[in-house]
Give the backbone structure.
Amino acid sequence: MNKSKDFLRRIVEEDLKTGKYQEIITRFPPEPNGFPHIGHAKSISINFGIARDYNGHCNLRMDDTNPTTEDTQYVEALKDAVHWLGFEWDKKVHFTSDYFHQLYDYAVELIKIGKAYVDSLNEDEIREYRGTVTTIGKRSKYAKRSVEENLDLFERMKKGEFEDGAHVLRAKIDMSASNMKMRDPLLYRIRHAHHFRAGDEWSVYPMYDFAHCLSDYIEGVTHSICTLEFENNRVIYDWVLDTLKLKPPRPYQYEFARLNINYTVMSKRKLLELVEKKIVSGWDDPRMPTIAGYKRRGYTPESILNFCEQIGIAKANSMVDVSQLEFCIRDDLNQKVPRVMCVVNPLKVTITNYEDLEEIDAPYYPHDVPKEGSRKLPFSKEIYIDRDDFAENPPTGYFRLTPEQPVRLKYAYILTCKEMIKDTNGDIIEIQAEYHPDSKSGSDTSGIKVKSAIQWVEANSAKKVELRLYDRLFKDEAPQGKEDINPNSLKIIKGALIEPAVITDKPDVRFQFEREGYFYADPVDYKDAVPVFNKIVALKDSWSKKKKPSKKLANAQTKKIQIDGEATPMDADEQARFDKYKNELKLNNEVANILARDKTLSSFYEEALSTLNSPLNIANIVVNEVARELKQKEISELKFSAKQIARLVKMIDDETISTKIAKGVFEEMSKSGENPTKIVQAKGLVQISDPTKILPVINEIIAKNPDNVQKFKEGNGKLLGFFVGQVLKKTGGKANPKVVNELVKKQLE
RNA sequence: UGGGGAUUCGCCAAGCGGUAAGGCAUCACGUUUUGGUCGUGACAUUCACAGGUUCGAAUCCUGUAUCCCCAUCCA
């Protein structure tokens, strides 16, 4: 079904296919220093999801290398989150701290092979020595320490003989690396701190870059999936595993873009601030984007998972619209939960011509939800409806009750307003109405047409409930801080009235309050005496949207103007080459320019040119194809020579092969280093230009695709490419495209 | 300013030289005892921009622009 796979799954499939790994092992490696949020859910969904899809397994590993920030309460929250989302980790929960001894041994190994040293510079000096992004760093004088001295020092660091910060263990890599992460990264620091699991055993703790890759390796992880900000760390990941010369297979790191959602924040720091400053009630405040928050709010794990699936996995930073999440929870709950009636803002209605008391049977689910179940609805002369469902002066298009317009009480009778009772302020406090005895739901013979059916509750049996209405926590789409908080993110309604069955029968914990939204019995504060419901999400409301004037005025052709920077001027050599290519060899500006500015490319070009005098075609293939290879490899690594390129071009010049075939042959050459003429021979790639051979193929394709022929004749010129492509495919790429093109055009006219 | 990434509809996102997928949002219409759901239809002649290569480019080449990440003894 899902035909397009994300890039991670594609990599996994490839690795399985090539036999790089027998079993796929992933891991979800949070640091237990905060509550997991929906961004973690994305990571969980990816890591556990991939493991599940490819019959592997996923480890839950607490990355607990920093004793000063981590705590066991977060470990529990993390475990809860994974379970709640429906995943099971392999065997036990892993901890990086489980590997502290092995990690220490690996560090000793690194020292022994001269790839790590104990540095005794202080923090400021280390920073200073590191240099900046534009200036190279300089190595500490302590890097010269002997292996023995390093070993001795490191052991004493471990034993706790030194103060915090007195020494660190660093990898010996390259202080002039353009990637700052490679400037002798720190591997261990001294911390006389109590670790929540390891206790006081250790005085040194490993850094992320050292611990993470090795923990992955120890666990046999194959695909170490993390977020984009670790792209720069990947080289260290590789460096550590490679210089330790570990027994293969080893894991590789891949990065994806972390999740952002508008109108909320996702950083642990900002989330922690909201909790600590008591802006929210806690980590599980239903307005928080934490797993605990969504859970308390009433979101289902299915909806969160479905959301994660919908948004996809890619490498571009992005901000997902909350409406996508809201869609997922509505979509899930629509099929699942019972519909009940709750009046949020009650307005009393006295039905003057009704003196009876009856119980009306009402189904819990609408006709389009295939679930059974119903309850009794008491009905009497005193009921409540929502204030919004009556209007003395209705706006146009208003479907509900007005002095002139009757309305149906859902599952019950049609009601006509007779009188409005107002208080001294002129506010309506009660409606006197009449019901139509022959209009009862299911046996309506009144013939009265109403525009809508509204929810209601019977006055004596209705239960008072507390409603907590949540709105987005921030008023800004990309909030920076507290100043962007939405002051109305929580509205508490104390006097809402609900039909009795909800409280007495408790058919579920989640409900749709008809025409209002989905609600969830608060798992903490709900008391039988004072039932509390959280609003999960409102129903989609196309009426209130319609009332408001359209918010966005068309941002008419704001075609952004782009200022192009200037190309650096050529030096004398380059200029001379450019002139020669342009004037003598008649290359076009672009090609001459590229060649002139690239010394490697131009000498390659000239070498080929010395064998074959075909300046244009050689230039094209050098600039477009050879240049690509040179992006990944050094010139010495190329499997093909300039002479071979000349031979390839010769075949193009002879029209033995088309440029399309030439590209394929080039691919082959760069992989195998095989002679181009041999490749062409071996694969029989000589192009077919004879119309009598091509025509039958064209006619066959035309006959097979009458729809597209029709479309083409209707003016869809793009289909020409479709037909040419099909013919080329059919002939294994050998048909002469120019000839095909002309013939197809002719045949279709 | 050095290095590493990214750029396809309002928001996500497929696409890997041969007809610009899909979802959310939006807008119509239809069904509806929820202004819900559901159904139908509309919504990128164009892929950040400019050149080049090619019969054919979102896809290959060159350059430019914009955004993100890296100079914690955090992860």
